[in-house]
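Dear colleague,

Following up on yesterday's call, I've attached the two folding results inline so they're easy to grep. Please treat them as preliminary; we haven't cross-checked anything against experimental data yet. The first protein's sequence and structure tokens come first.
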Amino acid sequence: MTTQLSSPTASGPAPKPPGRSPRALWHLGVNAIVVAWLALFAVVGSAHHFLPHAFWLLVHTLLLGAVTNAVVIWSGHFAASVLRLPEANRGAPAALRLVCLNAGAVAVIGGMYTGRWPVVLVGAGLVAAAVTAHAVWLVRLSRRALPGRFTMTVRYYTAAAALLPAGAALGVVMARGTLGGDLPERLLLAHEMINLLGWVGLTVAGTLITLWPTMLRTRVADGAERAGRRALPVLLAGLGAAVAAALLGPPPLAAPGVVAYAAGLVVAGVPWVREARAKTPRSFAAWSVAAGSLWLAGSLLLLAGILLTTTSWITVGERTSLLTAPLAAGWIAQVLLGALGFLVPVVLGGGPTAVRAATAGLERAWPARLTVTNAALLLCVLPVPSVVRVVCSVLLLVTLLYFLVLLLLTVVRGLRGRRGGTAGPEPAEARPHRVLGGVALGLAVVMLAVAGGGAADVRSLPILERSAATNADGGEVTPTGRTTTVEVTVRNMRFSPASVDVPDGDRLVVELHNTGTDTHDLVLETGARTDRIAPGKRATLDAGVVGRDLEGWCSVVGHRQMGMVFGVRVTGAGTAAAPRDDPRDDATAHDHHATGSEGTGGSAADAFDPMAAPADGFTARDARLPSAEGRVHQRTLTVKEAGAEVAPGVRQTLWTFDGTAPGPVLRGRVGDTFEITLVNDGTIGHSVDFHAGSLAPDEPMRTIRPGESLTYRFKATRSGVWMYHCSTMPMSLHIANGMFGAVVVDPPGLPGVDREYLLVQSEFYLGEQNGTADPAKVNAKEPDMVAFNGYANQYDHDPLTARTGERVRIWVLTAGPNMPSAFHVVGGQFDTVFREGAYDLRPGGAEHGGAQILDLAPASGGFVELTLPEAGDYPFVTHIMSDAERGAHGILRVR
């Protein structure tokens, strides 16, 4: 087998003279496609914050782009090798298959991005056609060849290629979007299992029968071919059972199929373990493949556990999203890079010395790289702070880029060496102490990244110079040598108990148990604190020796103002501090520390001037309402913390949906389906509540932690302009700091108009410049500023427009969180008023009536229509005049 793979340890024909053979040129050319997709994957990873549907794009550039090309290319190469027809995998038919495949992949990605399902359909058809043609070619190749020892490998490839069109068809159905109930989750799991475990998994398993011992530079174990022959039916049966259960049955019925698939891998993998025991892996390629296999094993076990422990496919869909990174980056990407690391030098050729030199070029610092990759990936899938997860993701991206750079350099040097007839110096084999040193270096890099990321998780905390071990007069307290341990539980945004008594001089240890639904911590004024802990988790705070009363609180923004405060009261001689009935009496102290963002020290409220004009070139937010297109509306809303100017010279750090406040406008009709994926790229927990949908809030409206996502699906059954907003406590603060938007659902038979605008009214409770909203002002309902569409008086400086005689419809939503609205157009009269799902006024009534305001309570909305007969500037305001004077003012310019 090693001869057939052109291994550097093979015994066979003497190496050809230096030069670029057609075989080498072909492989270098087609593998450049794989490298190009990997480079695109790296670019998407670097820019994912700025791209819509970034997670979907990352997965599909890797799996549909790089991996599918690699599978077609290398399965063709190995099939031709084991069947002793090495020239069969080149030429016009093979090139045409690759062109068809890549055109289809580009069409699928482009169609999904532009929302054009027919393009997705055509693209998926091209991908399926290319892979089907590949399967037909494999069958024809098998019939041409003489019987061989390892023809079983080709059967794996054929079975894998036969499965991909089914997976592509499921993907097309999901892209159409007209699905209800739990069908999307069922189809997604079936789609993923067919493509990952079938198309990719069977190909990898078939390849490792011969590639694994070649990587180890050892003989194929006795019985390897027989084990592969026995494993294939088990793998196919397990996969078929799991997919059938996913489509037709409850989740627990799919678990045995996953277990059977894993058992098939065990059957096939027993010889691989024997081969590794006979010859310990000593290369990047072998260890990368081995690490990937471990990630696959762990993912299959976790998948089976998820399926066994829930009866809801929607819950399965949410939980299995955690397996994407382990399967894509942990298993598939590592196997792909390991295979490229081994096979590219072989393809470059030039003799054993040249192959070893090229291999050494690709294996630079490989122990450190593999350690960084797997340790960082492990941290990414664990419940770590979001900043740590981001840092580890960057490390993963850097290791991929480093490999791509090494690959490019190795290819260039190999081609130059072949032209010059030199192979380069003979590389030395990595010594054990160098391997251990590389592992230690990789661990150190990850540990530094974790430490740096943890330090970057800045939380507002007033730290006093005095320690807890002083009495009220500042003198040192005498330690008693005793420890007081208390159990404190988080329940419904409260610490229970809210205060504890500690004897003077005792050491205090607090065992904190979070039984709430959000992330919390406990901070004492001395600086002692717990980590932020997820629901259901525990943490310990060691306050040290205590000699005076102490204040504590939860430092998550707004939680202190919601009453999450804690008191330590010292008892015994020498205690001068007066007891407090409830530490909430002091909850307003240090409010400037709890705004959740470091400001620049000045008050944003002092900088607000209602008469100020923005800089030249100012453009207001486009208030034109988009039209309703399609019946299924899919959108990803990414939570982002964004600095924004909200009035001339006034800047705040807003919590936003997709970087804007208000968030993106969604529009549809009665009967439309909305499928919204919420991704939390913020630093604290967030959620989303769509008033336009009617469904139990427990799951879709739950708070998700940084780095998590959820999918919210509802059917619009009633018309109106509906608010959506973050419902994480304190809800008032999350809304006040920018987390709100509008969903417009047209009433049936809504007539067309000449102009259609949307205005979302909201309040600003300004904190420091570049800081976040002031929680105390929110609680007191004392706004500094009121605005339409997120910027005070913006339409005074960049007016809305219309022409005389045109019919204008203005939708208004009052997002609050606290103030109502009385929308009015100065100089205009409304002949149509639609408020909260019904018409209050329509033209043609016997009364010949009109309306002067659209009165709306917080979180309500509607629209008005009017025609303006004369040219001029028509101010529009809320007729709660103090709010209009705070910025809820604009101009409708008629020409």
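Below is the second protein, in the same order (sequence, then structure):
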Amino acid sequence: MKFGLRLRGGLLATLIMFGAPVVAPVGAVFVSSSALAQTVQSISVEGNRRVEVETIRSYFKPGPGGRLDQAAIDDGLKALIETGLFQDVRINRGAGGQIIVSVVENPVIGRVAFEGNKKIKDEQLTTEVQSKARGTFSRAMVQSDTLRIAEIYRRSGRYDVRVTPEVIEQPNNRVDLIFTIEEGAKTGVKSIEFVGNNAFSSYRLRDVIKTRESNLLSFLASGDIYDPDRVEADRDLIRRFYLKNGFADVQVVAALTEYDPEKKGFNVTFKIEEGAQYRVGSVDFRSSIPNFDPSSLRAYSRVYAGSLYNVESVEKSVEEMQIEASRRGYAFAVVRPGGDRNFEAHTVSVVFNIDEGPRTYIERINLRGNTRTRDYVIRREFDISEGDAYNRALVDRAERRLKNLDYFKSVKITTEPGSSSDRVILIVDMEEKSTGDFSISGGYSTTDGALAEVSVSERNLLGRGLFAKASVTYGQYARGYSLSFVEPYLLDYRVALGLDLYQREQLSNSYISYGTKTLGFSPRLGFSLREDLALQLRYSVYQQQISLPSYLANCNNVLGSAAFNPSPAFSAATGIPLDPSTNGLGCYSDGEASLPVRKELANGKTLTSALGYTLTYNTLDNNKNPTDGLLIDFRQDFAGVGGDVSYLKSVADGKYYAPLVSDIVGIVRLQGGILTKINDDLRMLDHFQMGPNLVRGFAPNGIGPRDLNPFGTQDALGGTKYWGASLELQMPFWFLPKEVGLKGAVYADAGGLYDYKGPTSWFATNEVNAPGCIPSTINPPSAGTCTGLVYDDSKVIRSSVGVGLIWQSPFGPLRFDYAVPLTKGKYDRTQEFRFGGGTTF
């Protein structure tokens, strides 16, 4: 390091006993026995320019009788040096034994500047260093600042950083402080290895940790940057993963890091001692609390005999049991789990001991670090407050809830002793982070074409814990906007109120001949019944309208008109649709939309008013990339609370994920739905429309009942019943680095959509039964005198097999599927290749 000033520290005074002469070093104090009688007022000060004389004298504290002894002078000298205000401090003896304190003051910093920094801005570095403009220059402080700047760069992955401080002297005892920075290149993690892992592959364990290996796309993320704190946190993540999977004796012995100068990066190696895998041998409950039946808590246990030993399940059981005991009036009950290992049988006998804990109360809950978030937003996540009994399970739950809010970088709740032995103070330390998002999203799919979305959202609006989002979508075939607002605590209850306003426009494309425009509003209420069970209640009101090109709706279908022509026009003799060249009206000379579509067009705008709910059961280990667990959704919507239509729509969808062998994940999906007519006739638009969302290998709207008019658009009509089953295996590409994010899939799908209940005639219902009316049949079709629609509604099982490529790319999740239909309906439409994906940047 280069310094333009030479700094010197004073030395301690030397005690001269009995007047014995010695040779003293520079900066020493010469004191005889007569000097011991001096007072503070006998001290003179030389060399000071900014620091007042009385301030310097104040560092010398007289002893008994108001006199200065040698110890007081030594202490004063030490204190002056430690202030950092002076380059040099000397104590000498003047005439008559007077004490003379000579000082050379440190310069004043004129400015602090940074040169060479491109990756980190001046503003951030200025807030991190202690040396400030108009402050006192200190060599020790400059050294500390140099190390701090280097540490900031290392935290951002630049370990080759060089920081050189330079001091430039200026007039009037001032200096300019310049930090010259050579940032160097990012220092990434070049390899991650695991030693001692037999039960789980290195590929699987890389999913568990947060550190990633550097690759070509690492510039889009930061997980590959070497961070010792992250590596240490990864050790705990690995340990928790093993404990969750039955390895009760696991130890992550070390996380070894080594810098490779050739690769210019770090090699990280985790050393693991797995131990044996255990199952639960038995589960028992014991209580030392009088009149408390421990077996009554069995229903709250998530640990079962014969199941794989899972520390997380034990912890959740303890939490649920302790909270339940508190509800029953045992506020100080403590549930302590115990385990007796059988090393030969590899089982653990789990015992939950319910004991009376210390009678401790919460005196205060102190919040620290929430500069933006309102106090009440944090306090409402606690199920306890000041004056309540201290319950560690409820405190842990509050900490977990605060972390899940995603308002803070870190949350830690600790305790401090209160004003008495039975009082504790909860300290909630938080570090806030940005909660606003601005995103531009883009994507493409074979269904919707190119699509772009711009959105602005805020998760903690005004620091009140409110969520708001506005988005605009524009694409080839889909356009619209939406506004969303969520109040997570309605009237201070743990009930989320959501409001959605949206407008969507779907344009006609190669899969549908018509376009739709929908304008709607939907308030909803969300309840968390348990950690794995949620309920949503909603009300939806929306207005929908169909649009068609004029040439697809130019046939005269007015009953009683001379030109009346039901669609299609039939020959009375043969019952076969008339050829466009011979029907005389030209209805099909340029094509014609299906009767239900044109009837929707004739009806104009339709208002739907519906009440509904969704019940969700979720035990997935990871919502974004699950490998284990169950997700079940059951939804029902009842339309007919006002509006123009009435129906009951019920839908169930279940997915089960299970890890198999060699990092292969099996997925079983079952789904089904029923649309039930209530009063009015069902619209075509209310029917289920299915395609690759039910059986891959089929086009959108490619499955189910279809208009058979050979001269029309042959639109899909939809059905009132559907079912689907799918079996999929997802597997990694072991020969590729984990960080590439590629994996493959093979699957088999089967399903069916049938039972169209929409309009088939322009006649009213009572006219269909009029004398002489002969209704048509379906499959095979034949014409009647009262129908304008001939359609297929076969109950053929559609099935397919296929392969997929899944890429968790930095550009967002992308998926490519190629599926071959095995069985299909005669009029179904297939689409073997399908692609979809998008990103936020």
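For the second protein, one point worth flagging: Confidence is low (pLDDT under 50) at residues 1-37, 557-586, 765-774, 780-786.

Best wishes,
A.L.
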